Amino acid sequence: MKRTLNGKGGIRVRNIRLIARLDIKAPNLIKGVRLEGLRVLGDPKAFATRYYEAGVDEIIYMDIVASLYERNSLGDLLTRTARDVFIPITVGGGVRSIDDVRALLRAGADKVAINTAAVRQPELISEVASRFGSQCMVLSIEAKSAGPGKWEAYTDNGRERTGLDVLEWVKRGCELGAGEILLTSVDREGTRKGFDVELLKAVAEVATCPVIASGGMGTLDHMRDALDEGGVDAIAMADVLHYDRLSLREIRAAATDAGYVLRQDVGAAT
Amino acid sequence: MKVHVVDYGVGNLHSIVRAVEASGGEAVLTDSPKELARADRMLLPGVGAFEPCARRLQESGLVEPVKEFVRSGKPFLGICVGMQLLFDESREFGVHQGLGLIPGVVDAIPPLDAAGERKVPNIGWRPLRSPGEGSWDGTLMEGLEPGVSSAYFVHTYNCHPADAGHRLADVDYVGYQICAAVSKDNITGFQCHPERSGLVGLRIMANFLR
Question: How many structural domains is chain A composed of?
Answer without folding.
Answer: 1
